[in-house]
Model the fold of this input.
Amino acid sequence: MSTTVTSVDAGGTGDIPAHGPVLLVKGLRKSYETDRDIPVRALRGLDFTVSKGEFVAVSGPSGCGKSTLLNVIAGLEVPDEGTVRIGDDEVTGRSEDQLAHLRRRHIGMVFQFYNLLDELSVEQNIALPAMLGGRKRKAAEARARDLLGLLGLADRAGSSPSVLSGGQRQRLAIARALANDPTLLLADEPTGALDSEGSAEIAALFRRLNRDGQTIILVTHDPNVAAQASRVVRMADGAILAEDPESPGNPVSAPSEPVGPAE
Amino acid sequence: MNVVLLLWRTRLRSSWRSAVILVVLIGLGGAVTLAVAAGARRTASANDAILDELNSSDVVTAIPPGQPDAALAALRSLPDVSGAELWIGFTGQTQGIPPAAIPAILGFWSERPGVDRPFLTSGRLPTGRREAFLNQGAADRSGLGVGSKLQLALADQSFSDFKPVEVEIVGIGLFPDTMIEDELTNKVAVWFSRAFTEEHIDRMVYGSARLTLGRGDVPALAAGLAAMRAGSSDNDDDLVIGEVREEDRQRVQKALRPLLWAMAGLALLAGVTTALVATQALGRTLRRRRLDDQSLAAMGCTTRQLVAADLAYAVSVVGGGIVVAVALAVAASPLFPVGPARRFATVTGVHADLVALGLGGLALTTTIVVLAGVASWRRRTRPGTPRPGGAPGLLGSRPASSVGLRLVTGRRGTISTIAGVSTGLAAVVAALTFTGSLDHLVADPALVGMGWDVVGREGYTEVDVAQVRNAVQDDPSVRRISGIGYLDGELNGIITPLAAMEPVVGDPWPPIIAGRAPRSSREIMVGDTTLRALKLRIGDEVDVSVAANLVNDTVPRSETRRFTVVGSAIVPAIGLAGIYTPRLDVGALLPAQAFLEMFGTPPRVDVVLFDLDRHAAAPALIDRFPDGLPDANGNGTEWYTSAVPAEISQAEEARRVIWLAVAALGLAVVATIAHTLLGLVRQRRRDYAVLKALGFTRGQIRSTVLTQSGAILAVALVAALPLGAAAGRWLWTAFAGRIGVIVEPSIPLLLLAGCVLLSILAVQGAALIPATIARRTPAGQALHGE
Done:
């Protein structure tokens, strides 16, 4: 792979085909060392494809590898085997800095516990990734204000994230994830820390974003949230077990090895 | 209480690694603090210990030549005398030991002196007729040692006949009065055995009775001595009693003062830095238990119980650290005392100063525990929310720097980090300002009273100033020549070193601190300390009585004459070696004309000072006097072209301690910032993972951390530079004012600029460690969960 950071920046979403897969995951394997030196196999040869404009919900029991899958797609963790491709850009095999540049362009992430920077104001939390994406400060702040208006947080621009409610914080986290018009919006249990009303609000927001064309991969335990997705992928023990029958055809990858920690 | 004990044990068990680190941290910082504090006390008290050990004489008085046994027996019979010894004084010249002009040549009248015992550094006391004991300073300067032969010439009482003598040096050692020597007060001192002294008793010039006081005081002793002399046929001298022990003690303590100041300052700063760093580290350890504490609070633990458990943990680790510190300080005690007392082995070795170690350890423990307790209480009773990021526009154009600044300014505890770093840096700046001022003082002899370029000193014969004037009258490079005649005098009844200033050519006066120079024969200038001791101010009148000169005290004292104090001057620290040692701020100076009016003759000049044109060479002037300064007997002259008083040379010694302090504080500053950042990076692990998820590159993560260290350092420097410079100036003003030199603080700007640059490099270099840790934060793991 000879793709450079510059080519990632220069290519941008223009390289993403209007139809067809924006994310192609093949043969993904990932193990972790534990304190007792027993590796835990989080992903076991996983294949996975997402087309542009899809809203994919990934569900499954705790520890089945959902979050690891998102982290590997985002380049925050390096797989032991397999490849990840976003549009024309290969995620695997890149240096840390190349991955950082790739994330700026292609990835927006939302977490269960928001992971906002409390030392920055609400607006600055959004402006920061926008600046990283290449916008000048003024343009980044304008982008932040637009997104805050879009998500109903315009009146909280100067506040600290710590004074917002849970729902507001998650909306802010989503706004931050959208700062650079990412190819993929990755959400890891985004409603896990919210009450039912907040969950419904956030789920509706994701649905709305998807209708506007945003490709979303969302990890959730909540069937109500998953129901908002256009496709539901069920995972267990590091592999995809099944897909929602209504979703477009996607190969089901069965575990190729026994379930549980490796000997 | 049981709950607190349980919580304390749990904290110790679960945080034992942190506890060990804290014990080591406090142990090392505390060891520096306690060792230096105890060392300063040991250095300060070493002189008294030596005086006691050697049974130093309290007072010295002269006895006339002849019948020393009878004189000694009479002295020992006085009720106020607890011990007495005689030194028999000869005059003469030694060969091969500089300075040559004025050796002290003495004979012990006892085989084993009980008073003023010499401290032997090698060999033994002389017993044979051709054996001698030499003082350490002379041995160091001449290269002579035990077994060396020493040639000398003993003069008769009229200084006309010199008898050559060769002796073997059998012992070398020290007397307390030679502990502090400088170029102008050092001397050659040779002691002979009782056998030699008896053989040459016909050449005895004077006798020196060395007395220790029993129950009585000096006036009682004086009365006893006066009564004793009244019964003697040889009683035409004035009775002069020198309180040598107290004078020597004060002289040594004064010379040691800068060293002691530097050590006390080092101990204080090490203590403050240790307390701040330990408090921070302790706070971080306790904050890491936040989630446990929330669970404990949910189970019903009160805030008081949680704070008490924190305090118990703090007391445990601080107590452990202090025990380590005390042990290390005792182990380091052989490094002290520092300075001249170190030559006396009786005050060296392992020593436990229970007062310094106890009080210092208690102060450190209390400070750290109280600070940690207050922080624990505040954290639990006033849970703060992170500060809002401020106006959105404040996000700068460089995201890494902006985020770094926000992370460091939004962190609780940053203020205490900055306070600690500022304290350390301010101390460094103060130390550099102090040493810069010291450099300035050393570079400009006029500031220490030496407004002349060449000093010529005679021993026992008067300089013919008219011939001196004639010898240089054709030399345009000589700007002025001053003569000094040392006098034995009293101001308001108090014995005071006094000098008559003879204007051989031009103005005779040394640099003036306040007021002006005398313009009439009824005006006098007084050293600063003498002025204070006599409770005088400029403009006051003072009664002065003067004996004709110092060396020959057979001339009757003058009538008391009233003078007006018109100024305070630096009294040049030149005297007759071993006999008369005026110090910079002690003594008084009067015009030679006043002496002339009181006695009808001009004063006898012992020292001549030459002030030369800036481009003139001092050796050329000295070459004009190949046989020394003109005098009646053609005796040799000691020439000095640079003379650093002991007060200043001891300050030079202090420079080492100051630089050690600067280095220790610099390390402490760097360690504090690095330690803070390490804690900050661990505490902010999730934030760094978020930044990575947002697209921060490795370089940007590093910049974020370096911005934090840079910000802490910058704020600390902004506070430390003016504060440190002001503190350094204040310290110098206090110090220079007390040793009686002209107060001219000097801020070494180039050195400070270099120090700032070095601190930036060192801090940023050290910050690369936490920056690397931050860069390697596993983002995927860190972003899971809360």
About this structure: Chain B has 21 helices and 21 strands. Chain B touches chain A through 41 residues (CB under 8 Å).
